[in-house]
Amino acid sequence: MMITFKFLTSLIFLIDDLTFLLYCEYEFKMTQSEAGMLFCGTALCLFTYGLFISGFIVDKLGIKISLNIGLGLYALGKFILIFADSRTQLYLVMLTVMPLGISIIFPSLVLAVKRLCKENARPQAFSTFYAAMVLGAVLGGPIVDWIRHDYKQVSFTYTHTNEETGKEEEREQDFSAWRMICFVGFVLNIIMIVTLCFYDPRVEKRFEDPNIDHDKIKQLTYCGIFRELVSDPKFWKFLLFSFVIVGPKMVFSLLFFMLPKIILQDYGEDAPFGLYIAIAPILIIIFILILQPVQTNYDP
């Protein structure tokens, strides 16, 4: 189940990265710099929520409830983006519910893989986990192209009662391809939430580490967890390492974020930019297959 969730979340996140700049530009008439600043603000909120809020939620509430909260927040954000018609709504969603949902989903899925297998099986489990992530990234681009090609403008007819005349009138609501992409993300999130209802947390007990005092963990408070975290030198080393890694990654993410717009400018509005960008995760799979035999001969 968690491998499938990783595949679907990877697909959704890649679709979001590919289309966010274009969504902001076409739906809200934002400039590239304005959309880029919003993207950076979302990333900063994601880091902040992950550091101060999400870890505590995951530790105290467990995998199932945490994932329900994360997926629910993300689905709420996608639903609002389908109908959002002002920049205020866009900023509100992209700086609150969306990054908070993502910051809960990521660690919950990683923890789920750890808790649902024995220690000797974890390397293989995490390999499968990240393979699902790459596969989701491969398929995300073509799905974007498919929606852009077949659903450029979608209209829904509904009945509305005119308050002045008291008569029922038929009205049409138009949705662009960018909003339909948000709708696809919303539907996938709902599917995961419904599927999660069948997850039994008692399964985790079969794989529990007997050396861990789970009762003691449940008694920890937010302040206690935070105090223990900041007093550990390993945390600060990891935080410094994260900053060093995240800096170049953010530059790459911004370039990746701008690629669809660059491709559309050079090759026209119908250019299949999703297919072009899908080449990157395909190359990752190829390099893994090539390097895996070599890595077995060397220590980490």
UniProtKB/TrEMBL annotation:
SUPFAM superfamilies: MFS general substrate transporter. It is a multi-pass membrane protein. Keywords: Cell membrane, Membrane, Transmembrane, Transmembrane helix, Transport. One of its GO terms (molecular function) is transmembrane transporter activity. The chain crosses the membrane at residues 7-23, 35-58, 65-84, 90-113, 125-144, 177-199, 235-259, 271-291. It is found in: Cell membrane. InterPro entries: MFS, MFS_dom, MFS_trans_sf, MFS_Transporters. It comes from the Eukaryota. GO terms for cellular component: plasma membrane. Residues 1-300 form the Major facilitator superfamily (MFS) profile domain. The keyword Oxidoreductase does not apply. PROSITE patterns: MFS (PS50850). Gene3D superfamilies: MFS general substrate transporter like domains (1.20.1250.20). CDD domains: MFS. Pfam families: MFS_1 (PF07690). This is Major facilitator superfamily (MFS) profile domain-containing protein. It comes from Strombidium inclinatum. The lineage of its organism: Eukaryota, Sar, Alveolata, Ciliophora, Intramacronucleata.
